[in-house]
């Protein structure tokens, strides 16, 4: 996969692309990521990328010219152009799975109060939001999107095991999964806090059952809407009924 990012702050990407999965995926040729300074596609002395909003109002809007020129220079027949904005369709794991099959992504990062609407209408194939909160620009959203997509590329993860587990569990979104069960590692007692005994018991059937019930209970308490689309067994449903019957218990007893 090739990814071209267009931003007025290209150096915001330097560190995030230099660590962990994104670094490794770039080094091994799984993905080829380039960052382009939008100001390189201006022609005036001041390299202007913004202007006042027609109709008035606060702040500045990104001019269409430099963005059209940048995408004209980078676009190929197989490209998917993505615009990050708070008005976009919600970017979920399901959307990441759709995008992983594309050969070329061009990711547009706005700043100020956003971009001229003609960019959304004529340049972008997809307008996406990573969630209902206001960032100061598209760069952090672009990084979240890239990390979610690149880790799905064949060869991006060390072994394909974690990936398999993600897809089996549905990983808690879109695919119809549950939230994950709590995890513990050594030591078995830390500052007076014990690891649940069942995890030390060596009884694998009991461990499996405990983890499933923890996943169900967490999902029920924190993200109940996920239960609507989760694949649940009759045992799962019986356990959830028991939970509901327990008079909407407080999350923890004192
Ligand atoms: C972005 C920004 C809009 C104005 C609330 C009322 C008025 C600041 C480009 C994506 C997600 C973004 C995102 C993506 C691109 C840009 C900043 C936009 C307003 C705010 C203020 C500029 C933000 N998922 N969150 N944020 N901004 N609005």
How would you characterize this protein structure?
This protein is an alpha/beta fold. It folds into 2 domains: 2-150, Alpha/beta knot, CATH 3.40.1280; 160-246, tRNA(m1g37)methyltransferase, domain 2 (Trp Operon Repressor, Chain A, Orthogonal Bundle), CATH 1.10.1270.20. The chain is built from 8 helices and 9 strands. It has helices at 20-27, 64-74, 93-99, 117-122, 139-150, 161-169, 204-222, 234-245; strands at residues 2-7, 32-37, 50-51, 61-62, 79-90, 104-108, 126-129, 189-190, 193-194. A 5-stranded parallel beta sheet has the order 2-1-6-5-7. α7 (204-222) crosses α8 (234-245). The radius of gyration is 23 Å and the shape is elongated. It starts with a strand and ends in a 9-residue tail after the last helix. The mean pLDDT is 94. The protein binds ligand JFH.
């Amino acid at each position: 996969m090739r990814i071209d990012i267009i931003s007025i702050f290209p150096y915001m990407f330097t560190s995030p692309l230099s660590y962990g999965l994104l670094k490794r995926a770039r080094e091994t040729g799984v993905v080829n990521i380039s960052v382009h300074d939008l100001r390189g596609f201006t022609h005036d002395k001041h390299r202007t990328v913004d202007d006042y909003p027609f109709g008035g109002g606060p702040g500045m809007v990104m001019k269409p010219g430099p963005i059209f020129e940048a995408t004209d220079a980078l676009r190929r027949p197989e490209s998917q152009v993505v615009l990050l904005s708070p008005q976009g369709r919600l970017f979920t794991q399901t959307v990441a799975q759709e995008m992983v099959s594309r050969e070329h992504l061009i990711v547009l990062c706005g700043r100020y109060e956003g971009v001229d609407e003609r960019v959304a209408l004529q340049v972008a194939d997809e307008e996406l939001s990573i969630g209902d909160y206001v960032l100061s620009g598209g760069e952090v959203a672009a990084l979240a999107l890239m990390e979610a997509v690149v880790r799905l590329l064949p060869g991006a993860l060390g072994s394909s095991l974690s990936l398999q587990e993600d897809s089996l569990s549905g990983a808690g979104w879109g695919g119809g999964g549950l939230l994950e069960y709590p995890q513990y590692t050594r030591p078995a007692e830390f500052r007076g806090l014990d690891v649940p005994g069942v995890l030390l018991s060596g009884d694998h059937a009991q461990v499996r059952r405990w983890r499933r019930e923890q996943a169900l209970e967490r999902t029920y308490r924190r993200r109940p809407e996920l239960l609507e689309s989760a694949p649940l067994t009759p045992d799962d449903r019986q356990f959830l009924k028991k939970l509901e019957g327990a008079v909407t218990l407080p999350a923890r007893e004192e």
